[in-house]
Amino acid sequence: MSRGTLSLERLNPLTTLTGAAAVAVITTAAGHWAFSLTVLGGLLALTARQARAAAVLRAAAAILLPFWTALLFMHGLFFPEGRTVLAELGPAAVTREGLLFALDAGLRTGVFVVAFLLFSFTVRVPELLTVLSARGLPPRLGFVVVSALTLLPAAADRIRRIRAAQEARGLVIGRSLASRLLAARLQAVPLVLSLVHESGERAQALDARGFSGRQPHTSLRTVPDSAPQWAARRVLLVLSLAAVAVRVALALFGGRA
User: Fold this and answer.
1) What is the reported pTM?
2) Contact between 107 and 40 (Cβ < 8 Å)
């Protein structure tokens, strides 16, 4: 498989996992749409350098576009704390506060989704499972974690197949918002059921291969690591804890200044 420059596949899985988690935590702690927009732009630029960039962007669009539409509809038109009315649409009102809230929540969610999709599409599953087991995580639990992460890339392709099957049976998706939301709900139910079914099959396969046993497991795979990556993970951990500490301190004492 060809790889783009700055390929995340060359890194230790713990490094990319720590990076995705740190980005999500720091962005949430910052809580400002401009910061979230900057981080999201950086993630998209990094995604463009990966070999599976198109797949990551398609999956992110399938997840985020319906979510952003719902945010805009709910908070842009019916925000209870809105004071600055920009436009009135009958019982609904477009308010500046509602739009800013939708923008902030949408960008933070976009950072979270793109960061972990990028990790899911670039991680090498056997190496991640080996690293988690070497860190003391039970093999069965490690496999469950890996399965949950690797199901994300498959979800986007499965949504397309579900939609194609429903359209073949007569489903018509109009251009209106109500029609698209109804179609999203009809596709979400079989998607969740299929993922749950696949998870059950994987659990049975784990039991058949002895993953439920408590005896020590030996791995024949060695995952390379480096001192710079080890240091980067520690720095990211410190930055995440510092961001959370600052956020908590501002929440507790900011109003007293």
Assistant:
1) 0.71
2) yes
Phi, psi of 192 (to 5 degrees): -65, -45
- One-letter amino acid for residue 132 of the chain: L
Residue 16, token pair as written in the block: 């990319």
Query: Which tens digit of pLDDT belongs to each residue from 25-38?
Result: 999 999 899 999 99
The reported pLDDT for the residue numbered 155 is: 64
Sequence-ordered list of residues with C-beta below 8 angstroms from that of 183, at least 6 positions apart, any chain = 163, 166, 171, 173
* Contact status, residue 7 vs residue 51, Cβ threshold 8 Å: yes
Higher pLDDT, 198 or 257: 198
Residue 190 contacts residue 159 (beta carbons within 8 Å):
no
Position 187 scores a pLDDT of: 72
Long-range contact pairs involving 28-36 (C-beta distance under 8 Å, separation at least 24): 28/108, 28/112, 29/240, 29/243, 29/244, 29/246, 29/247, 30/243, 30/247, 31/104, 31/108, 31/247, 32/104, 33/100, 33/103, 33/104, 33/107, 36/104, 36/107, 36/108, 36/110, 36/111
Instruction: Return the domain boundaries, the chain.
Output: 12-123, 125-208
